[in-house]
């Protein structure tokens, strides 16, 4: 199992993840938007579009308007997840001393390591609790159950197990993983060196955690989790600046629109295409 999960599968995982992402993003980029589906009221400038997409992407503006309880749970979950992902990359890269890179704070390597562990513990707990809350909503609230799908529940359960195992390795000393061990393992994989002999792979919780992460990455490009990228495209499409008033709709002054050059075709240009 150590050979399969720790040595062989990571290369398949990275390959499938990269090719899958390129395939999905390529399909989106090449898709033709036949009809203008900008939502009313239309935004007038690109700056307004950037602000709208930013607030919806990072602050979940629509959720805040329509369901503040869901907004709080979703915002906490995504914020904690983002910090954990960044914390993994930075923590393993700098061995927990990343806060020393901010010279004005005067943080020592020892304090930085303690801060890294503290923030990791806090966000691990917050993420686990937020996932539990989102799962509770899907199982307990009648309005949510009407549109809920079993696959949505399975994803939440999957993430709960993944995060739960990570928390066990953080809080239970017998299963704790040092930064240096993970960095050495990743470095060996990048350099195509054998890793089966490494002490890290003797930790059963780490092995299961690693397997779950790899399965997640393999499935990611073909799942609903792609909303993290698709949301930006969808929000831009429905919020972009729209200059073409629709002809034959009530309250549309076609003559004024033509005089302003807003794109309503006249008789001489009607045959030039859509």
From TrEMBL:
Record keywords, A-Z: Cell membrane, Electron transport, Membrane, Oxidoreductase, Transmembrane, Transmembrane helix, Transport
InterPro entries: Heme-iron_electron_transfer, NarG-like_domain, NarG-like_sf
NarG-like domain mapped to chain residues: 65-237
GO cellular component labels: plasma membrane
The enzyme's E.C. designation: 1.7.99.4
GO biological process terms on file: anaerobic electron transport chain
Main location: membrane
Molecular function terms from GO: electron transfer activity; heme binding; nitrate reductase activity
Topology relative to the membrane: Multi-pass membrane protein
Subcellular location: Cell membrane
SUPFAM superfamilies for the chain: Respiratory nitrate reductase 1 gamma chain
Domain of life assignment: Bacteria
Enzyme class: oxidoreductase
Segments traversing the membrane: 6-25, 69-95, 115-135, 155-172, 204-222
Protein known as: Respiratory nitrate reductase 2 gamma chain
Gene designation per UniProt: narV
């Amino acid at each position: 199992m150590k050979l399969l999960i720790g040595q062989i599968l990571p290369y398949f995982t990275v390959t499938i993840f990269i090719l899958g992402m390129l395939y999905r993003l390529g399909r989106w980029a090449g898709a033709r938007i036949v009809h203008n589906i900008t939502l009313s009221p239309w935004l007038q400038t690109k700056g307004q579009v950037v602000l709208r997409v930013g607030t919806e992407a990072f602050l979940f503006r629509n959720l805040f308007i329509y369901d503040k309880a869901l907004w709080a749970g979703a915002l906490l979950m995504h914020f904690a997840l983002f910090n954990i992902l960044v914390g993994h990359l930075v923590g393993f890269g700098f061995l927990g001393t990343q806060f020393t890179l901010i010279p004005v704070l005067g943080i020592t390597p020892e304090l930085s390591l303690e801060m890294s562990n503290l923030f990791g513990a806090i966000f691990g707990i917050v993420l686990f609790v937020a996932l539990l809350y989102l799962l509770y909503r899907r199982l307990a609230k009648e309005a949510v159950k009407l549109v809920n799908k079993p696959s949505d529940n399975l994803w939440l359960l999957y993430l709960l197990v993944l995060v739960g195992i990570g928390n066990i390795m953080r809080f239970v000393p017998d299963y704790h993983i040092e930064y240096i061990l993970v960095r050495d393992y990743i470095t060996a994989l990048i350099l195509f060196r054998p890793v089966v002999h490494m002490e890290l792979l003797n930790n059963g919780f780490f092995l299961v955690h690693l397997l779950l992460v790899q399965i997640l990455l393999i499935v990611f490009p073909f799942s609903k989790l792609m909303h993290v990228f698709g949301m930006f495209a969808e929000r831009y499409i429905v919020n972009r600046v729209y200059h073409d008033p629709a002809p034959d709709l009530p309250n549309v002054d076609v003559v004024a629109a033509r005089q302003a050059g807003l794109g309503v075709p006249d008789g001489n240009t009607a045959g030039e295409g859509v």
